[in-house]
Structure to design on (104 residues):
């Protein structure tokens, strides 16, 4: 009886049948059978794993968060740094090239 009910999903005659078969057959791979050995290494909150590398544009914020052990202090320090950098950039005069291109 289960085989007959399952056969309706396996037949590739319709889009819904195809995706139904995909979901049902992928349920088999959803259950982990063998654990990876890295899963059993205790986590060290003061050291980032070697395979995790932040993007270059996150590096200053990443360095701020790592240098301040308090989470809220790190977020406040990132906000202050962002405010200072944007304030410094914002006070610079706009070059004429950008004004001309913006008016076109």
């Amino acid at each position: 009886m289960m085989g007959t009910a399952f056969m309706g999903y396996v037949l590739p005659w319709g889009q819904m049948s195809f995706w139904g078969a995909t979901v049902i057959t992928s349920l088999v791979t959803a259950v982990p059978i063998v654990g990876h050995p890295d899963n059993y290494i205790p986590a060290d909150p003061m050291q980032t794993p070697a395979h995790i590398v932040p993007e270059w544009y996150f590096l200053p914020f990443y360095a701020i968060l790592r240098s301040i052990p308090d989470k809220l202090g790190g977020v406040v320090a990132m906000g202050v740094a962002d405010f200072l950098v944007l304030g410094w950039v914002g006070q610079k005069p706009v070059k004429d090239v950008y004004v001309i291109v913006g008016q076109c």
In short: The mean pLDDT is 78.
